[in-house]
Structures are given as C-alpha cells and as structure tokens.
Write a structure and sequence with these properties.
InterPro entries: LigD_PE_domain. The chain has 120 residues and is mainly β. The protein is built from no helices and nine strands.
Length: 120
Amino acid sequence: MPQFVLLRHTLPADSPRASHYDLMLESGESLLTWAIEALPTAGSIVAEELPPHRLVYLDYEGAVSNNRGSVARVDRGELVWLQQTSDEYCARLQGEQLRGEFRLRRTSAQFWELSFPGES
C-alpha cells in the first residue's frame, strides 16, 4: 500500500527559503512533494509543488546534502489514492496525526491549494 510522510524541513539561517514542512505522497517509484508553511489542519493552505523525491525519504531523518538543512519526521502512514490527475489529487491518509481525506488542487503552475477537512 502506498505511504505518505510529513517532514519538518529546517533550513540554515542563511537560506533564502524559510523552514517549512514537506508533504510527500508515494506514487509509483517516487514521492510527489509539496512544501507547506504550517501543519495541515481543517481548512485550506497554500502548497508549493517541489520536484519528486526519492522513496528513501519515507524513512530518512537527518541532514540534507549540500547544506540544505535537515529533516525530521512529523507523521507517516498509509495513503489510499482516490483521484490522481494533472491538476488535482485526492487521497485518504491514515497516519498518527493526519487522518482523513484531503484534496490538492492546482491554482497555478507551481502552487496548489491543500484542503484537509480532518478525520473522516
């Protein structure tokens, strides 16, 4: 069964980007990845699409190469895909903290709206 992971990505003080969370969803041989500024809770937040990541990040915690900070796992669990299109993803998460259905809907080339009503 596909997995998901939510990582806290802490960046160095001199990084042009702020520390954030990485939401990673297993799809085939990679992890579809979005950066989000806050933990997903009921409601909607902006998610920035990042390049797909390697499956190793399902288990990895620690330093990220090339002085890109470090990652620590916040949550992990199973995911059931309900819909996957180029502009929208829907799935059900079964993690320790994140439980229920969510929707990612593209709003521009790089940005998406993440809606997470919570446990369902």
